[in-house]
Amino acid sequence: MVVGLTGGIGSGKSTVAKLFKNFDTVAVYIADVEAKKLMNSSDEIRTKLTEAFGEETYIENQLNRPYLASIVFNNKEKLNVLNSIVHPEVNKHFEAFIQENAHKAYILYESAILFESNNQHQFDFIISVFVAVEERVIRVLKRDHSTKQAILDRINNQWKEDKKLLLSNYIIENHTLKETEAAVKRIHNILTQKVVTFL
User: Which is more confident, 153 or 59?
Assistant: First the structure.
């Protein structure tokens, strides 16, 4: 069984993913982390990114993140090109991860852009982490030393929360760690019971 986990910037989905990782019967795949690794290790991605964005895309064999970010940040067309190169390789990598962890009760795939990348159909269930926009902005300001406008721009580039929540099977309102831990445990117990019906 494969479960998707998503949430907007500042919602705390990474914290929720770590809580799920504490269960021995769950394998957790963090799409953003694996994508970053693949952008440095995959020859296919490297070749295609260099062709699309120029030789400056890599410096001393490492991805030039500031350069690439400056190109795609406010350009949806360029961002789509980037995603069309990276996402298929991440999907292949995830398929291998599923095979390696077939003995687990379920596999959790964490991605900020699960819906935006049209990946929702490949999951048996979807969990969304929810926090009001105002709180998310405060959290990211503390974490990233960014500006309020930059954070709002990133939020506006993602799907609206109500749309995500309507398409989710479970919602975690991430206000306090204690409440979130309880919600994760409850959902884990439900999912573990549901595994039986998938066998």
Answer: 59
Q: In which region does residue 50 sit, left (phi positive, over 0), alpha (psi from -120 to 50) or beta (all else)?
A: alpha
What is the token pair recorded at 72?
A: 């795609």
3-class secondary structure, 46: helix
> In a 3-state reduction of DSSP, which class is residue 80?
helix
Helix (H) or strand (E) holding 186: helix 177-198
158, 112 Cβ separation under 8 angstroms: yes
Residue-wise pLDDT tens digits, 119-136? 888 999 999 999 887 888
**Type of residue numbered 161:** E
Q: What is the DSSP string of 14-80?
A: HHHHHHHHTSTTEEEEEHHHHHHHHHHH-HHHHHHHHHHH-GGGEETTEE-HHHHHHHHTT-HHHHH
Helix and strand counts by DSSP (H, E) for the chain: 9, 7
Are the C-beta atoms of 26 and 187 separated by less than 8 Å? no
CA pair distance 115, 175, nearest whole angstrom: 23
- The contacts of residue 150 (CB under 8 Å, 6+ apart) are none
The predicted pLDDT at position 170 comes to: 96
Whole-model pTM: value is: 0.87
Burial class (CB in 10 A: 0-12, 13-18, 19+), 193: exposed
pLDDT interval class at 163 (50, 70, 90): confident
